[in-house]
Specification:
- It comes from Paramecium sonneborni.
- This is hydroxymethylglutaryl-CoA lyase.
- This protein is α/β, with parallel strands linked by helices.
- The chain contains 12 helices and 11 strands.
- The protein has a 9-stranded parallel beta sheet with strand order 2-1-11-10-9-6-5-4-3.
- The chain is globular, with a radius of gyration of 18 Å.
Length: 308
């Protein structure tokens, strides 16, 4: 109850602040949420999970990741899952690809949208994908060019936009630099990830100001709720004009390189918050609960969302 009361008290000041009328929520549960879970979810259950999410009203559900099974065992069935899910009209099903090999696998199953990921931290880039930021962008550029040649949409991610487990605080201007390069490559949208959840409303404000040269309708935010600050950070971003938020049903997920638990902000918490503030999301809360109950039951875990 204290978490609920604490959140509600923080929301009061936003009752009189201009915020977007609508917010698009990108559901990350099937990919970012599941990829580091120790319990391997069977392919048929992943398909059911995604199909349940498809009935919730999301416009985008990140479905899987075409990465090496050796490094990410949970995603070893990417092709099978993508082929078997029901593709609902007007819902996009992006997949994460780290390289051209991953893209080639995605193309074989007729993927329509991919995501590429970089970092604003040199140390994190080395730990996560074993190369520098510069080299990672060159690698992604090859992926983007081939994707464009095949009519594929590309979304970009920037990790560690507020802090890195190895470098500490990150200069917002570095985030702007990487973001600019992703847009120049051809990404239609760039999602800004607070990978280890060290962001604060003040840091979020500073980041928004450093990115003021960009069209905020082409930016998204992706906050982890390590210190229960994801919602305040999201609200600061919305106040500055952001209209797209990444989240994960029941708070699934976290970064294996972050050095501490750092789960994604729960989709239910985001939806409840936005509904409370009169912001439209298009999400059916009852169907969202059904999807959440299903996946939490498989993983033997509690839903960490805040309901009010």
């Amino acid at each position: 109850m204290s978490r609920v009361n604490n959140l509600l008290s923080q929301l009061q000041k936003y009752k009189n602040i201009k915020l977007p009328q609508k917010v698009k929520i990108v559901e990350m549960g099937p990919r970012d949420g599941l990829q580091n879970e120790k319990i391997i979810v069977e392919s048929e259950n992943k398909v059911k999970f995604i199909n349940l999410l498809s009935q919730c009203g999301f416009q985008a559900i990140e479905t899987t990741s075409f990465v090496s099974k050796k490094w990410v065992p949970q995603m070893g069935d990417a092709s099978e899952v993508y082929q078997k899910i029901d593709k609902v009209p007007n819902v996009s099903y992006p997949v994460l690809v780290p390289n051209v090999t991953g893209l080639d696998q995605a193309l074989k199953v007729d993927v329509k949208e991919i995501a590429v990921f970089g970092a604003a931290s040199e140390a994190f880039s080395q730990k996560n994908i074993n190369c520098s930021i510069s080299d990672s962008l060159k690698r992604f550029n090859e992926v983007v060019i081939k994707a464009q040649q095949n009519g594929i949409k590309i979304r970009g991610y920037v990790s560690c936009v507020m802090g890195c487990p190895y470098e500490g605080d990150i200069n917002p201007l570095k985030v702007a630099e990487v973001t600019q390069k992703l847009f120049e490559m051809g990404c239609y949208e760039v999602s800004l990830g607070d990978t280890i959840g060290v962001g604060t409303p003040e840091k979020t404000k500073d980041l928004m100001q450093a990115l003021s040269q960009f069209d905020f309708q082409k930016l998204a935010v992706h906050f982890h709720d390590t210190y229960d600050r994801a919602i305040p950070n999201i609200l600061v971003a919305l106040e500055h004009g952001i209209q797209v938020v990444d989240s994960s049903v029941s708070g699934l997920g976290g970064c294996p390189y972050a050095g501490k638990p750092s789960g994604n902000v729960a989709t239910e918490t985001v939806v409840n918050t936005l509904n409370y503030l009169g912001i439209e999301t298009g999400i059916d809360k009852e169907k969202l609960k059904e999807a959440s109950d299903f996946i939490c039951g498989l993983l033997n875990r509690q839903n960490i969302s805040i309901n009010f």
